[in-house]
């Protein structure tokens, strides 16, 4: 095990990001938000969420064949889809289902409040780990449309091949560990329970209260 829990991972990750001051820190819900909370607190940054959804293989939902983000970005692993013979009809149904869930989560987490300003800012995107990297790829591509000053991907642990791919998309990648024998993100945590919507909402409220709502809009 590399981390006790997501809080511990966030503390360790913040140490590796200590050269940033008051960045915009975006957690990928749900599991990335507890990690991002610790990073934002340590760096004096603004915390928010960027909702992305994995497109799981129908009979193996944990295996990503793509991902979607809130501004219509859709990333597809076409070779995997072809190899597994996932029909277009089934793919379309999964995209529709995940789009509905994405919209539900956006409303639950942020109401009708828009994302903070991205353009020209240092933006750190945080998740609890990278397995296939599909959701992070969708997140990075979505954020690129708003021209951040610097786009940093920060994760405690990642599969080496996924990390290499993300490194071609972000301005900087910070990863504490990239083990060769990588089966899942959860294997590197002593405690890796599901993060609930309620926990995400509570962490966002705590971060907003701690900043006194003085963060840049």
Automatic annotation (TrEMBL):
The record's section on CDD domains has: PRTases_typeI
The record's Pfam families line, in alphabetical order, gives: Pribosyltran (PF00156)
This protein's record includes keyword Transferase: yes
For this protein, the parts annotated as crossing the membrane are none
Question: Which keywords has UniProt assigned to this entry?
Answer: Transferase
Stretches assigned to the Phosphoribosyltransferase domain: 19-177
Keyword GTP-binding assigned? no
GO MF term set: transferase activity
Instruction: Name the chain's protein.
Output: Putative phosphoribosyl transferase
């Amino acid at each position: 095990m590399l981390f006790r829990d997501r809080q511990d991972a966030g503390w360790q990750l913040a140490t590796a990001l200590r050269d940033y001051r008051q960045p915009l820190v975006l957690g990928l819900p749900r599991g990335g938000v507890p990690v991002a909370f610790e990073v934002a607190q340590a760096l004096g940054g603004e915390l928010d969420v960027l909702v992305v959804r994995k497109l799981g293989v129908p009979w193996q939902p944990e295996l990503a064949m793509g991902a979607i983000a809130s501004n219509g970005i859709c990333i597809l692993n076409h070779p995997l889809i072809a190899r597994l013979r996932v029909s277009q009809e089934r793919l379309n149904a999964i995209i529709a289902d995940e789009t509905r869930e994405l919209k539900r989560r956006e409303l639950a987490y942020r109401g009708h409040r828009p994302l903070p300003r991205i353009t020209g800012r240092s933006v750190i995107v945080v998740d609890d780990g990278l397995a296939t990297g599909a959701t992070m790829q969708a997140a990075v591509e979505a954020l690129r449309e708003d021209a951040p000053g610097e786009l940093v991907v920060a994760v405690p642990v990642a599969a080496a091949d996924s990390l290499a791919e993300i490194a071609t998309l972000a301005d900087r990648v910070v990863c504490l560990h990239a083990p060769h024998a990588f089966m899942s993100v959860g294997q590197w945590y002593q405690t890796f329970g599901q993060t609930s919507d309620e926990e995400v909402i509570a962490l966002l409220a705590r971060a907003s209260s701690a900043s006194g709502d003085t963060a840049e809009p």
